[in-house]
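Hi, here's the filled form for the chain we discussed.

Project: internal
Contact: R.S.
Residues: 149
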Amino acid sequence: MKSDLLPSPANVREPRSGESGPGPVRRVVIIDPRPERRTLTSWLVSQRAALTVVGEAGSLGEAEAQIRDEHADVALVEIQMPVAQGLATIGTLRAQFADLQIVVCSFHRDSASSDAARRLGADGYLTKPLRVDDLLELLTSSGVKTAAL
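And the returned structure, exactly as it came back:
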């Protein structure tokens, strides 16, 4: 059985000779209420040299402290906290950390959830099961990119 969650070596390769390097390392905080998902996501993110996980939070309060203390560049947010709480997390993070890139990974495939996340300040929205390449591309990008549903 093939899994879309585990990267193949091609998904996490480093630049070849002559290619530009990955740029500065981006500091990521993972926000998800379930510890087992935080652990798996942390492992996936850490497979890319251009990314380092500097925090794992189960709530907005934990995330705020980690983002501030660790000078995070990116927050990876699961909005299934329930959804209203997850969406509020995006709005609060955007209000407090204007330069923070906010990427949502969610099982919610409906346009209402993705539109609400974007209105509240999410820079990207990926649905699960996700393609690891899409996730890593959004996290390593310093610009604002939005993934389509």
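Let me know if anything looks off before we file it.
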